[in-house]
Design brief:
Layout (H helix, E strand, L loop, with lengths): L1 H14 L6 H28 L8 E4 L3 E5 L4 E5 L5 E4 L3 E5 L5 E5 L7 H12 L2 H4 L13
Antiparallel strand pairs: 1-2, 2-3, 4-5, 5-6
Helix pairs in contact: 1-2
């Protein structure tokens, strides 16, 4: 996305009447490139070094709730509290609000369970609730 914005700014600069418009557009493109390439490894490194994430997490997922147990917490979430989910090649993200979410790694599932979980998410989180935050997200991930 960042590269396409930078390319657009070059086209505007080369062929447009008002070349001043190209400068902020190019800066936005550079920002998106920075976020995609620099920040992602930074957050991965923070995650891997943080000892709080090195404990066992057990989840029991049923038709009624998601029950998560860690060494520090025991949480039961009704499906109604999950407003949307995103999926990448390696994870599911379950959102409780705009920026509050839990990550569920796909490698935690046994063979065939990923599809069952995805179907459960689609049934329990209707499209109307998933879109209720007013923003559509596309999640591309190598997390």
């Amino acid at each position: 996305m960042g590269a396409s914005i930078i390319l657009s700014s070059i086209v505007i600069f080369a062929f447009g009447r008002d070349r001043f418009e190209a400068v902020p557009l190019a800066l936005i493109g550079v920002y998106f490139l920075y976020c995609g390439f620099a920040l992602r490894p930074f957050f991965k490194k923070l995650y891997r070094r943080d000892p709080r994430y090195r404990h066992e997490i057990t989840a029991d997922i049923t038709e009624d709730e998601v029950h998560v147990v860690t060494s520090a917490a025991d949480t039961r979430l009704k499906w109604e509290s999950i407003v949307r989910f995103l999926e990448s090649d390696k994870i599911f993200m379950l959102f409780y609000s705009e920026w509050s979410f839990s990550v569920v790694p796909k490698n935690a599932f046994a063979s065939g369970e990923v599809e069952i979980f995805r179907d459960l998410l689609r049934r329990k989180i209707p499209q109307s609730r998933r879109a209720s935050l007013g923003v559509r997200y596309r999640f591309f991930g190598g997390i």
